[in-house]
Amino acid sequence: MISALEPAVLPESVRSRFVDGVNGLRVHLLEAGQPGNPPVLLLHGFPELAYSWRKVMPALAEAGYHVIAPDQRGYGRTTGWDPEYDGDLASFRLMNLVRDTVGLLAALGCPTVVAVVGHDFGASVAAWCALLRPDIFRSVTLMSAPFGGPPGLAATATPDIHKALAALDRPRKHYQWYYSTREANADMTHSRQGMHAFLRAYYHHKSADWVGNQPFRLGGPTAAELALMPTYYIMDLDRAMPRTVAAEMPSPEAIAACRWLPDHDLGVYSREYERTGFQGGLQWYRCRTQGVGSGELQVFSGRTLDVPSMFIAGAHDWGIYQTHGAIERMQASVCTQMRGCHLLHGAGHWVQQENPADVAALLLTFLRG
User: Fold this and answer.
1) Would the pTM of this model clear 0.70, i.e. be above it?
2) Most buried pick, 188, 219, 223, 333, via CB within 10 A?
3) Which candidate in 66, 119, 174, 349 is catalytic?
4) How confident is the model over 151-191, as pLDDT tens digits?
5) Domain extent listing, the chain
6) Which residue stretches of the chain have pLDDT < 50?
7) Catalytic: which of 71, 120, 187, 317?
8) 7-154+294-368 belongs to which homologous superfamily?
């Protein structure tokens, strides 16, 4: 049986344990603060773990909160999910991921949380948690991935963006559809450069350390506009992700100077993904690109997210603009109690790791307000 995360890799106030019987899962979680204090739930994205919240958790716990960060379905030391490409894909659909969070809180004896906070794909889960069960999730903070609202009921004809991307003078493909291919997991798990070097290049390429991350609003959801984004989003047609990010591998000097993700911290990620591979997280993308579960989400078409909400992202994060119009819809109509939209300087996509002090300060102000 998989053991808890060793204390040596965690801040002193953060502990690791398991919770059994959660929607078919044995959930591994990180925890800080005292049970019985107001609970805050933190949901990570791809390719991260509960460990991505290690720098924020102590500050929230010190302020009097019970902080809970699980390895979500498909990730880390949580077990009970199907790891096969041809396995139970539907268990990774958004509605079931919300069920995972509700089941975890029930198992922990938490009838409500004062906030659910989600980063990257975890922001999608957090948004749906707050939209579907505002009685449980009393407020929500979304990080790096704006929530554009539930899908509409009417099917609309759209151009084949993938055909258009492939037809560009420099042929391209969308990373989410690459992640949905059968080959993606093996490409990344068994990359030529090895897991540690692959993740180093991947995290660097999407951080503020990469000088090319100077995002701006795109003119529209066309192939030509999408191709203005970096290659970790709109990839060269003939390249897998390891080769894509290898071109931007930081120098040994830059790695040594990286304070937000030193090698011993990166080693936690690389050891976990060497053991599990990436297929669990990639199943989330397959559900999105293949529309698995989208019909049940359409039931909530037009529904707004009505609990107090906040958005945080790095100012150097292209994720803010990758879905055309989402950040504008989120602020204008989807989140009816939006309390702030903050873009933090000195941070790219991994905002809670690159700038944890400002993230923690914003969360505490929001929670107290």
Assistant:
1) yes
2) 188
3) 349
4) 999 766 677 899 999 999 999 999 999 999 999 999 999 99
5) 7-154+294-368, 161-281
6) none
7) 120
8) Alpha/Beta hydrolase fold, catalytic domain (3.40.50.1820)
SS (H, E, C) the chain: CCCCCCHHHCCCCCEEEEEEEECCEEEEEEEECCECECEEEEECCCCCCHHHHCCCHHHHHHCCCEEEEECCCCCCCCECCCCCCCCCHHHHCHHHHHHHHHHHHHHHCCCCECEEEEECHHHHHHHHHHHHCCCCECCEEEECCCCCCCCCCCCCCCCCHHHHHHCCCCCEEEHHHHHCCCCHHHHHHCCCCCHHHHHHHHHHHCCCCCCCCCCCCCCCCCHHHHCCCCCCCEEECCCCHHHHHHCCCCCHHHHHHCCCCCHHHHHHHHHHHHHHCCHHHHHHHHHHHHCCCHHHHHCCCCCCECCCEEEEEECCCHHHCCCCCHHHHHHHHHECCEEEEEEECCCCCCHHHHCHHHHHHHHHHHHHC
* Structure confidence at residue 1 (pLDDT): 85
Tell me the C-alpha distance between 129 and 140, whole Å: 9
pLDDT tens figures, 299-334: 999 999 999 999 999 999 999 999 999 999 999 999
Q: Say what the alpha-carbon torsion angle 68, 75, 294, 20 is, to the nearest 10 degrees.
A: -60
CA-CA distances (angstroms) from residue 316 to 54, 141, 343? 22, 19, 8
